[in-house]
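Q: My labmate handed me this sequence with no annotations at all. I'd like to see what the chain might look like in three dimensions before we decide whether it's worth expressing. Could you predict it?
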Amino acid sequence: MIKIKHPVEECNASQEKFLATCPSEERRFHELIFTVGNISYRYHHEAKDYSPNMIDYQEWLEGLPDNVRKGMEEQGFENCKSILSFTRYVMEKNDVGMEEYIRLHMDPQDYEEYLKIAKG
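A: Here is what I predict for the chain of 120 residues:
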């Protein structure tokens, strides 16, 4: 069972449909991966609550390799607000680490099982 649902109902339906048709020996793996993915989606989406600003953007750009930074500068601040590495930067700048966020939102047993798969 996917314990943390995606905030977009269409995604939940798609995930459940997939699980209904996947081989039983693969089902648990996919349940955990969907759960982590859904938590990760929520994590990145919450970055907007911290109102990322131009200072955050400039700091983030400074940490990027030259070729990537140039591309992100061309995209501009508004377009970069949804770039995952930027949203993660904003969250971590506000002391919300992604791994800790995932751990806190998963059932402890599920999290341990996920770690075994991830390291695997």
